Amino acid sequence: MAKPITAFTCTACGASHRKWSGKCDACGAWNTIVEEAPLSQGPGRGLGTRKGKTIPLSDLATQEAPPPRATSGIAELDRVLGGGLVPGSAILVGGDPGIGKSTLLLQAASAFARSGRSAIYVSGEEASAQVRMRAQRLGLGDAPVRLGAETALRDILTTLDAERPDVAVIDSIQTLWSDQIEAAPGSVAQVRTAAHELVAFAKRRGTAVILVGHVTKEGQIAGPRVVEHMVDTVLYFEGERGHQFRILRAHKNRFGPADEIGVFEMTGGGLSEVANPSALFLSERGEPTPGSAVFAGIEGTRPVLTEVQALVAPSTLASPRRTVVGLDGGRVSTILAVLEARCGIPFAGLDVFLNVAGGMRVSEPAADLAIAAALLGAREDSALPSDCVLFGEISLSGALRPVSQAENRLKEAQKLGFSRAILPSATKVEGVAGMRIDRTSDLTSFVGETFGA
Ligand code: TYD
Ligand code: MG
């Protein structure tokens, strides 16, 4: 008989390795690689004995239309899901412990239940009485949602199979254990098995299954990334602990646009929706300050305005600080290099701090021009006009590239009281009433026109 293969798996990203090492080559995390139970070699090669079934694609057209999506009535959640929950789909909601996943999903389960769907909320972390207490605090004490407190995978599947709910929330995937596996609860093998069985159940019975996954810092507990590939939709719940804003972001969605965001505010009575995130992200803005620039961005299908803030100060360090929050650090380094090489504006010997206000994270390349404007403003101690928004991608040559959906961006800016926009000359856009548009072809002319440098 062949010798069983010992496998080592990264608990952060799920990559498997042949031998142990301190750092995972795949995701770069330290001390996350653990030994998994040996994989059996399986029954051997060759054909199986059961015949599967295929059907012609064209036959599908004659079957009835698929059941409609279930909407919760929480518009921010429904939009991130791509217009509601698809029956039979599996959704993973990941996030740091304490960010508000249980709160959000209890509210969601109650909303689905109140809109006439049968919903079950299974908690592996809290007793039913504790969940009920939380529900009462959230004003959901009378919602017709069924509660379960269970961690045994087999029992959960039996319950779900008997009750056949439309929506089942499992909080959290790391607390489940299957007696078919010898590994401890929370290990990669247990988390994968639980996810696999629950996803299979979702497809078989048409129940939409929502799995909660904690993002883990220590290596012994598997993180949500190890099951990302199994589910249809991956949502991450983000936010800074000090801020009350929470952002639900779609990282993968088989049934809707990825990159869509839903914005919530954590209040004493649970999470409330933020229908106009731009107003919220800009709410702390006061007088024009050097180093502040408003970026007109697009998140998923809707425009969102955010404020990029920069601080540039003389450094005492041999290699000056580059502290970036809410933006891609690599992107910022590139922009600094372009400013230095193409526009002759050096940042050597200067500490650079960049931040997106309100705890928002911006990953669009269209933010380049706003980042450059914030950096220049901070360096030159000169403020941009407070009624001005910017967008445009910076190429390595210093040229400005046009970005998509310019009109949507401008309309949102106009709605929020901005009256001027700086954007790349090649942008295809008709004017928007009440907006003055300044076109600029490259970074050097932008620097000259805006900062007189
Ligand atoms: P929780 O949903 O338990 O987080 P997770 O399931 O992601 O671990 O949220 C916990 C935090 O939310 C806790 O710090 C308290 C805060 N919170 C409120 O501010 N208001 C509320 O109404 C509730 C229920 C929680
Ligand atoms: Mg929780």
Automatic annotation (TrEMBL):
Keywords: ATP-binding, DNA damage, DNA repair, DNA-binding, Hydrolase, Metal-binding, Nucleotide-binding, Stress response, Zinc, Zinc-finger. A motif (RadA KNRFG motif) lies at residues 252-256. The keyword Protein transport does not apply. NCBIfam families: sms (TIGR00416). It comes from Paracoccus aminovorans. Signal peptide: none annotated. This is DNA repair protein RadA. ATP binds at G95, D96, P97, G98, I99, G100, K101, S102. Belongs to the RecA family. RadA subfamily. GO terms for cellular component: cytosol. Residues 66-215 form the RecA family profile domain. InterPro entries: AAA+_ATPase, DNA_repair_RadA, P-loop_NTPase, RecA_ATP-bd, Ribosomal_Su5_D2-typ_SF, Ribsml_uS5_D2-typ_fold_subgr, Rubredoxin_2. Residues 351-453 are annotated as: Lon-protease-like. GO terms for molecular function: ATP binding; ATP-dependent DNA damage sensor activity; damaged DNA binding; hydrolase activity; zinc ion binding. The gene is radA. GO terms for biological process: recombinational repair. It comes from the Bacteria.
